[in-house]
Structures are given as structure tokens and as C-alpha cells.
Amino acid sequence: EPSAACEVCEGAEEMTEPLKQCVAWLQAYFCEPARTTSLPIPAFHHPLLQRDSFTRQVLWTLLRDVKFGEAVSYKQLANLAGNDRAARAVGGAMRSNPIPIIIPCHRVISSSGKSGNYGGGSLMKEWLLSHEKLQKEKLS
């Protein structure tokens, strides 16, 4: 809704810098998506994103290569991450994603074009995909 205001909870002045970056990024994602490309990606300190693993490779590849308003299949993402036979492992990586939306696991769909699973539920995944599609069309 264009007239809806994006607001941050009270106490924003007490937030740490990484949390402020995260809030700014999420506000931009929902309210002004074109700004997300100019904002720094919040610092991620989750252990899953620190150790060397295929899951880490998949999540960073997704973040880096699948842009706002795009979708990729599990198989395509496996290929981008360096193992074209690991589509099922990509599904596991999506389930392990500690920061959905910022690392956009909702953009990963099945090869048939169906949306597939999502930790936030299929309605949320469909909404996020629709949000991105509509916002991308507005920018075009």
C-alpha cells in the first residue's frame, strides 16, 4: 500500500549498528525496494554463514546472484553454487537459512515453476514473490 507509512519500533536509537543496518534494509525492501541495491548488506555473524560448507556457498550465491524480482530453480541454484547435482541439498540450505528475506530463499522455486516450500509458509512465499514482481514492474 503506497500510502502506508514504514515505521521502526520505539527504541531505535538504542539499536546496535548491525541491527540499524538490518532495519534500514528491511524498510527499504518493503517500502522502497530500489534503495536496497544502494544499502550495505547487514553484517552476518551466524555460525552457519561463517563455516566453509555447501550450505554457505548456496546462501551466498543466492544473495549475490539472484536479484530482486527474479526466481531460480533449486537445480539452477545448485549449478550456480558449483554442484549441478545437488538440488536436494539446495532445499536443505534453504531450510537452514538463518535470515530469510535478506538472503532471499523465497526466490527459489521448483523446476516446474511451482513455488515450493518456504519456512514462513506458502502464502508468505507467494506474497513475497508477488511483492517483488509488482515493485519491479513499477520500476520498469
From TrEMBL:
GO terms for molecular function: DNA binding; metal ion binding; methylated-DNA-[protein]-cysteine S-methyltransferase activity. Its EC number is 2.1.1.63. It is an enzyme of class 2 (transferase). It is found in: Nucleus. One of its GO terms (biological process) is DNA repair. Residues 56-133 form the Methylated-DNA-[protein]-cysteine S-methyltransferase DNA binding domain. Belongs to the MGMT family. This is Methylated-DNA--protein-cysteine methyltransferase. It comes from Nyctiprogne leucopyga.
